[in-house]
Amino acid sequence: MKKLLIVVNEDRFFLSHRKDIALRAQLEGFDVTIVCKDTGRGHEVKALGLPMVDMPINPTGTNLKEELSTLLFLWRLYRMERPDIVHHVGLKNILWGSLAAKFAKVGGVVNAVCGLGVLFAGDQSSLMARMVMKVMAFANHGMNVSEIFQNKDDMQLFISQGIVDASQCDFVKGSGVDLTTFTNVPKPVGGKYRIIFTARMVKEKGVITLIEAAEKLRQEFGDKVEFLLCGDLSNNPDGIKKEELENRCDGVYLQWLGYRKDVKDLLMSSHIMAFPSYYREGLPLSLIEACAVGLPIVTCDSIGCRDTVDDGVNGFLIQPRDSDALADKLRILLLDPSLRETMGKKGREKAEKEFSLKKVVDKHIEIYNRVLAGEKHII
Known about the structure:
- By secondary structure, this protein is α/β, with parallel strands linked by helices.
- The chain has 14 helices and 13 strands.
- The chain has helices spanning 11-17, 19-27, 42-47, 64-81, 91-103, 127-140, 152-160, 207-221, 242-248, 263-268, 285-292, 323-335, 337-354, 357-373; strands at 3-10, 31-37, 52-54, 85-89, 108-113, 145-149, 169-171, 193-198, 225-230, 254-258, 272-275, 297-300, 315-318.
- Helix 5 (91-103) links the parallel strand 4 (85-89) and strand 5 (108-113).
C-alpha cells in the first residue's frame, strides 16, 4: 500500500478544504495520514478514520527558531514514515516541507499553491519574497514534483522565477464545492436582504472596505438590509482585533458572527455575496460556494477573486479598497431582484462547469498516480 502524507497548517483547514481528497485517496488504496496543527478539531479528523500527526507550526509566524523547528519536525517525520508521496498545502508547508522532502529523499512531492497571501501582496521583489522563491526553487530542483496552482497568475510567477517548469505544473480551480449539498434554492422573501461575507477577519480580505461600504448604504437601506460578517479572528499580523469588530458592528445592521459551522445554511439564506479581498488569493472557497448556491457576487478584480466572476454576468468586479464602488454595485443588486436572480443562475452554471468537488478530487487522484509513476506533465 502506497503511503501518502497530506500536510496542512491546521485541522480546521483540512476539514473544510482537503477532507474529501484524503477520503477518496484512502478508497483508492493509499495509506493516508494527515499532518497538521491540532487546534481542537483533531478528533474530527480521526473520527473520519484518518490518522493525524500534530505538527508544530505557527501559520503566520516569522520567528526563525519556530520555523526551523517545523522544518526539523517534517524532516524527522519523513525519515521515519518513508512516505511515497507528501502533499504540501499552502506556502509555508511548501517551503519547509519541500526542503524536508529533498533532504529525506522522498520519492514524490505534490505542492498545492492555494494563494500567496500577505508575503506577495505588495512588492513581489521584496527581499523576503525573493528568498522564499530561491529556497523553493532549490527544493524543487531534481525532484519528482507536481506543483498545483489555482490561478494562472501564480503559475506564471513560479515559472518565471525558475521555481518550476511547465512539466511540473498542474492547474486545479480551487478546492471544489459539493454541488449536491450547496444548491441554488429560492432566496428568502419578505424579510431583510442579507449581504454575506465569509472569511477570516483579516484586513487584506477586505473586511474594512465592506464595513465602509455598508456605512455608505446605511441611511438608504438601514432598515432593509443586514450585513453578515462570518469568520473567525486570525493571528495574522494584519488580523482585525475583536474590539474593533465589536465597535464597528452594531449587531443588527452590521453583524459579526464569528466562526460558524453553518456557513452553508447562512449562504443559502442570503441574497448577495460581498467579498472585496485584495489578499493574494488562490481561488477563494467563499466565492465558489457562493456561485454554487446562486448568489450574485461583488468582489475585486484581483488575483484569484477575478477567476470566479465574469463581470456583469454572475456578479461585478471592482478595484481593490474601493468602498464607493462596492457600495454602488451592492445598491444596484439590492434594487434589482431580477438581476440578482439572473446573476445567481449564471453563478450556479459556472460552479457546475468549473468548480465541481468531484472534478477536483478526480484530478488529485490522477496527480498522485502520475507522481507515483514518475511521469511529467505538460499543461
